[in-house]
Structures are given as structure tokens and as C-alpha cells.
Amino acid sequence: GFKYSKLIELLLLLLFFLDRPPAPVNVSVMHLRADSATVSWEVPEGDIIIGFSISQQRMDGKMQRFIREVNTTSRSCVLWDLEEETNYIIQVQSIGLYGESQASKRVPFRTLKKTDHEPLSPLTDDPTVQGLDKARHLQTGEMIIIVVVLLMWAAVIALFCRQYDIIKDNDSSNSKEKVKPSSERTTPEHHSGGLLRSKVGHL
């Protein structure tokens, strides 16, 4: 039983290593700031990747951080809360269905001084911020569409009320016109009645 369990363990271990996705390639650091940077990478085709794991470490070894994201197809990640003028090393791993890949090559980068690069709108080139801006634009567009639809409905209701008033006025004038002939008809009856009476009188 012990030999079989060892064999099963070895087979599972072999299966785990065989099913591990390949390590990310072309790892690069963009949008360097004093306190942030964006890491991007590529994944070789043919493997199902469900997330990523990033290890971020200062070169002096004082601080290490791990960022792990699953259920994502993203190929970039923003590193926040970095220290200015500090050297860092990052490595990226792909997360597959059955485990993580080997770590990518170590990529060094250095953050900037706060005075070196202070953009008017911070992180304007950053994909995350661009996404937020797009979301804001979408929200504004949706609001405009809602307002336009409401105005259109108000115009339709106003037009309907106006048409209804015109129809109502026409109906009331038609009813008045119908009443008039009936009153005209009553006058001949009086005349005829008068004639009858005059005839009776003569008789």
C-alpha cells in the first residue's frame, strides 16, 4: 500500500508539472511615476490562463509584496504605493487550471523623483485610469440619453393633451350644432299648432 501511494503521489506531481502553463514573456514596466508603475506581459498561446501572480520586491530586500488575481484575462497590473527613487524587481507567473507557471525573468525598474514627473492629470496614460474615464464618459452619455428620452416623452404627452383638447372642442361644437336644428324644428311645430288652432277657430 505504501509503494502504491508513493507512485500515485509521483504521478500527480508529474501531472501537475505537465499541466503547468508556460511562464509569461515580454514582461515590461510602463508609465513610471514616483509612487506607481504599470507591469505588462504576454502569455504564449494554447494554454488556458485564469489569472496572474506578481511578486514585487525592493532590491535592498526590505519589502516584498505579492499580488494575485484570478478569474481575469488581464495582461497588465498597476503597482501602487511605491517609494520614490527606489529600485524594484518584479516577476510574473501565469495561473492555469491546474497550477501556476514558473516565474518569468526578473525585471528591474526604478521609480522617479516626485519633482521629475508630475503630470497635470496623474496617470492619464494608465489603462486603469483610462477605463475609469471611459466609465465616466459612459455615465455622462447615459444621463444625456435619459434626459433626451424624458424630454421626448414630455413633448409626446404635451402633443397628446393638445390634440385631445382640440378633439374635445370639436366634439362640443358639433354637439351644439346638432342642438340648433332641433330647436329650429320646434318652431315649425308651434306654427303648425297655430295653424291648426286657426283652422279649428274658423270651423
UniProtKB/TrEMBL annotation:
<keyword id="KW-0472">Membrane</keyword>
<feature type="domain" description="Fibronectin type-III">
    <location>
        <begin position="21"/>
        <end position="114"/>
    </location>
</feature>
<dbReference type="InterPro" id="IPR003961">
    <property type="entry name" value="FN3_dom"/>
</dbReference>
<feature type="region of interest" description="Disordered">
    <location>
        <begin position="171"/>
        <end position="203"/>
    </location>
</feature>
<feature type="transmembrane region" description="Helical">
    <location>
        <begin position="143"/>
        <end position="161"/>
    </location>
</feature>
<dbReference type="GO" id="GO:0005886">
    <property type="term" value="C:plasma membrane"/>
</dbReference>
<dbReference type="Pfam" id="PF00041">
    <property type="entry name" value="fn3"/>
</dbReference>
<keyword id="KW-0812">Transmembrane</keyword>
<dbReference type="InterPro" id="IPR052120">
    <property type="entry name" value="FNDC_type_III_4/5"/>
</dbReference>
<keyword id="KW-0732">Signal</keyword>
<protein>
    <submittedName>
        <fullName>Fibronectin type III domain containing 4a</fullName>
    </submittedName>
</protein>
<feature type="compositionally biased region" description="Basic and acidic residues">
    <location>
        <begin position="171"/>
        <end position="192"/>
    </location>
</feature>
<keyword id="KW-0325">Glycoprotein</keyword>
<keyword id="KW-1133">Transmembrane helix</keyword>
<keyword id="KW-0964">Secreted</keyword>
<dbReference type="InterPro" id="IPR013783">
    <property type="entry name" value="Ig-like_fold"/>
</dbReference>
<dbReference type="InterPro" id="IPR036116">
    <property type="entry name" value="FN3_sf"/>
</dbReference>
<dbReference type="GO" id="GO:0005576">
    <property type="term" value="C:extracellular region"/>
</dbReference>
<feature type="signal peptide">
    <location>
        <begin position="1"/>
        <end position="24"/>
    </location>
</feature>
